[in-house]
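Lab notebook, design round three. We kept the backbone fixed and only want residue identities now. Task for the bench partner: fill in a sequence for the structure below.
Input structure tokens:
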């Protein structure tokens, strides 16, 4: 029997306390609308349990009643995974579990609860002379549980890896309310399946993460940052290889940005001044970290070598924190700036790094053939082979007509190029509700069967984030 919303609210108030339940639809907006406002649906209730035990009690109740539970962190996910699908689900916000439980700098481990805001995790690590290196534009709102559950990447993946690589262990509540006590600080643990790796990146479909032990690193003394003019993605690839050879693990970031990004941001007053040395078809934002006791200048000498090899034509090196901040703002505003130019069609894709130039070349040709005047804006984590392959509508086009006519067709040609190059149709943002059908079309059928079997074993009643990632759940 499906419970009414009023029955759900009453039951949750008994379990978690009435102050921790929102049942009035007019007060649920902050939990229901995701950043791009593409997906919207009501919820039966929002519950914000104050303790791990309360999370367990909510799950036990939901499992008995067959109520869908959607875990939510900062609600910044970009694929609609954290918002309701049917309207009968309960949103379980982890926001109140926001303690840093411990920091052990000698062991390089920080244990944080799921509701800790990413930026606060950064600050906590920095206060102890360490760094938690997962940096995203949404870090002021995104929370540890959400970041892990979407296996987020960001700008430091090159040097430190994505969320999965930065997680040593998790504590999680299973669908039936049992607690998996998987927090550990072991670099080596060969005692069977890696359950942590199942829960990280599961988008709340296998369990509710309540805390995680995370890798922290010595804080670099300084950063060397530059914006470099390059002629083409092919030159960017060569430059990337040169930088890796010279800087090794100190190469933190290698981000590719096309000229149109600068043009849009300058025209719309998004930058107080041009952060680049001069006009160029492409820019690379390159950052090296410098540890205590090492001499500065590694970036400068590498760029001189690149200049001598005719890989770059010009560059500007940040001379102050303000310069560095402006360079990063230029990069971080790339996604947002497109909204100032009307509608855009977006793809979060990855290919082997060596195939990035082919991805951009073939993808641009395919889209321009389909839609004359379409404006390609491919940018992102070149060093990870992860390009946010976006397209702005032609100048003067009608946004609605552009999306209605070309959204699906452009997706089809871009995903075709990506798959032919051995790539992935979701590099960072996940599946959620946005890419459920696409996943079914492109994922290896054996892999899909294994995923369904795991889902059925851990969540036999299908209460955890129902309908997301894998739709055909019993
Ligand atoms: C401006 C902007 C920039 C971004 N940049 C990047 C980027 O560079 N790289 C990148 O990878 N991503 C990026 N993202 C998306 C990124 O995935 C999210 O910002 C972040 O990782 C999600 O954290 P959140 O707390 O907001 O999770 P939510 O959006 O609340 O949830 C995301 C998913 O995790 C699940 N979930 C949340 N908490 C838990 C939990 N405790 N247990 C189990 N499941 C849970 C939800 O059900 C949902 O499936 C960006 C987003 C924005 C808005």
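Proposed sequence:
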């Amino acid at each position: 029997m499906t419970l009414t919303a009023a029955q759900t609210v009453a039951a949750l108030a008994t379990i978690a306390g009435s102050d921790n339940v929102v049942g009035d639809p007019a007060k649920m907006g902050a939990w229901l609308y995701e950043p791009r406002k593409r997906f919207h649906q009501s919820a039966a209730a929002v519950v914000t349990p104050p303790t791990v035990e309360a999370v367990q009690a909510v799950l036990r109740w939901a499992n008995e009643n067959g109520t869908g539970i959607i875990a939510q962190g900062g609600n910044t996910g970009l694929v609609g995974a954290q918002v309701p699908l049917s309207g009968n689900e309960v949103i379980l916000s982890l926001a109140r579990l926001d303690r840093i439980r411990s920091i052990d700098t000698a062991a390089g481990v920080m244990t944080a609860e799921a509701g800790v805001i990413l930026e606060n995790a950064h600050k906590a690590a920095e206060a102890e002379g360490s760094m938690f290196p997962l940096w995203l534009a949404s870090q002021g709102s995104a929370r540890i549980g959400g970041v892990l559950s979407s296996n987020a990447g960001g700008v430091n993946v090159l040097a430190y890896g994505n969320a999965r690589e930065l997680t040593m262990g998790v504590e999680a509540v299973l669908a039936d309310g049992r607690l998996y006590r998987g927090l550990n600080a072991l670099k080596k643990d060969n005692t069977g399946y890696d359950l942590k790796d199942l829960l990280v990146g599961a988008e709340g479909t296998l369990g509710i993460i309540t805390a995680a032990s995370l890798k922290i690193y010595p804080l670099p003394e300084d950063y060397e940052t530059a914006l470099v003019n390059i002629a083409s993605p092919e030159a960017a690839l060569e430059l990337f290889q040169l930088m890796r050879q010279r800087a090794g693990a100190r190469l933190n970031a290698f981000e590719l940005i096309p000229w149109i990004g600068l043009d849009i941001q300058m025209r719309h007053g998004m930058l107080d001044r041009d952060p680049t040395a001069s006009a160029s078809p492409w820019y690379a934002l390159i950052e090296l970290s410098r540890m205590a006791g090492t001499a500065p200048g590694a970036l400068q000498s590498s760029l001189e070598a690149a200049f001598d090899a005719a890989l770059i034509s010009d560059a500007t090196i940040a001379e102050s924190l303000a310069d560095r901040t402006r360079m990063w703002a230029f990069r971080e505003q790339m996604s947002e700036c497109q909204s100032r130019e009307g509608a855009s069609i977006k793809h979060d894709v990855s290919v082997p790094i060596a195939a990035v130039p082919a991805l951009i070349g073939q993808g641009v040709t395919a889209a321009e053939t389909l839609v004359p005047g379409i404006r390609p804006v491919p940018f992102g984590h070149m060093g990870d082979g992860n390009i946010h392959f976006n397209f702005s509508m032609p100048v003067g086009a009608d946004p609605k007509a552009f999306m209605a006519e070309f959204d699906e067709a452009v997706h089809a040609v871009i995903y075709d190029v990506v798959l032919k190059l051995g790539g992935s149709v979701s590099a960072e943002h996940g599946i959620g509700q946005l890419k459920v059908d696409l996943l079914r079309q492109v994922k290896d059928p054996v892999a899909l069967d294994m995923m369904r079997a795991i889902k059925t074993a851990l969540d036999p009643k299908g209460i955890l984030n129902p309908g997301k990632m894998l739709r055909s759940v019993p």
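Keep this in mind before ordering anything: DSSP finds 17 helices and 19 strands in the chain.
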